[in-house]
Amino acid sequence: MKSIYIYGASGHGLVIADIAHRCGYENIIFIDDGDNEFSNFESIKNNTGISICFGIGNNKIRAKVFQNASNAGFKIATLIDPSAIISNSAIIGDGVVVMPNVVVNAKAIIGDGVILNSGSVIEHESVIGDFVHISPKVALAGNVKIGKMTHIGIGSNVIQGLSIGQNCIVGAGSVVVKNIVDFKKAYGNPCKEIEDIK
Description:
By secondary structure, the chain is of the alpha/beta class. It contains three helices and 22 strands.
């Protein structure tokens, strides 16, 4: 029986469990460090024969648990829903979750620990940094660069050739028509930098 750990047992983890089933995993084992009925990481960290993936939406927390699992010797699983369309020339990192109906086109590069949420489109030659969260229905045009730890809100659009820095938050429904520097919160149509993120 093919088994996998899902680190994080909230709603996001439940969605990832569905993807894992569709990818052929029969035995889904949730772990969670919260105050609940699930085993925590400490209780499984010596059982590295089972791959692990991450049901954690928060970028910083996901990066931390990814590093802990990697340091402990776990194989970090990447899960790609069978409905997704991924170019043969795209590069997908470790610990990535690609949700239903995602499109990743030619020569796109997706870093480690990235979430490509339902129905998002990553066009040709775009580069997505480590531990980015691309929300549902986001569309990135060609040759867009997204810095590590950034969150792009649901339904946002980014025109071709732009860069969004690291540790940014782009609010839901935004239309990004110019570059955004590091550590900025931005939103709107057209999208504007609103405040710094500390």
